[in-house]
Amino acid sequence: MLQLKSQPSLRQVTDLRDKLETQFRPQIDRASKELRRMLKQLGADTEQTHSLSELVSQLRERNPSLKALLLNLDAATYDARKQLSWNAHMLSAYALTKVEETYEQNLKPRLVDYRRQAEDRVKALTDKAAEYRGKVARNADSD
Q1: What are the pLDDT digits (tens) for 114-133?
Q2: Around Cβ 128, how many Cβ atoms within 10 Å?
Q3: 1 has a pLDDT exceeding 50
Q4: Do 55 and 44 form a contact (C-beta atoms < 8 A)?
Q5: DSSP labels, the chain
Q6: Is residue 5 over pLDDT 60?
Q7: What angle do CA 20, 24, 26 make, to 5 degrees?
């Protein structure tokens, strides 16, 4: 009985994992390719290197001083940094456009409607107040 109940749940988890993997796989592959390009530019051979210690020793060998490492790191990451900056700017512009569209389509009509309703209520209240003032004035005159 417990196994029968867990099967749909396990299937849902598996489906969700597959869906997320298909969504993120291209980005992960692109980032991996970019990292390999950067490491190659820093002096590491990523095709033959299989361990982290080999990679570090290659980087130390090709970049003997901290200054050389930082200069090479700056050059290797320049394209990625500019791409990230561009993507961030475009994402913020896209978000701003979506916010403006949402405001125009959803929020602005509601605000206009609320304002109209408030103006109608205020007018109705002022009309009633004028009517009551007239009644009070007539009652005061008749006394």
Answers
A1: 999 999 999 999 999 999 99
A2: 10
A3: no
A4: yes
A5: -HHHHHHHHHHHHHHHHHHHHHHHHHHHHHHHHHHHHHHHHHT--TTT--SHHHHHHHHHHH--SHHHHHHHHHHHHHHHHHHHHHHHHHHHHHHHHHHHHHIIIIIHHHHHHHHHHHHHHHHHHHHHHHHHHHHHHHHHHH-
A6: no
A7: 140
- Give dist(CA 120, CA 87) in Å, integer: 48
User: Amino acid identity of 49?
Assistant: T
Residue linked to tokens 């929020």:
107
Q: Nearest CA to 74 among 43, 45, 35, 38?
A: 38
How far apart are alpha carbons 78 and 31 in whole angstroms? 14
The C-alpha R_g of the chain, in whole angstroms, comes to 34
Residue type, 94: Y
Q: What is the pLDDT of residue 117?
A: 96
CB atoms < 10 A from the CB of 44, how many? 21
Answer yes or no: are the C-beta atoms of 27 and 84 closer than 8 Å.
Answer: no
Find out whether 96 and 75 touch, Cβ atoms under 8 Å: no
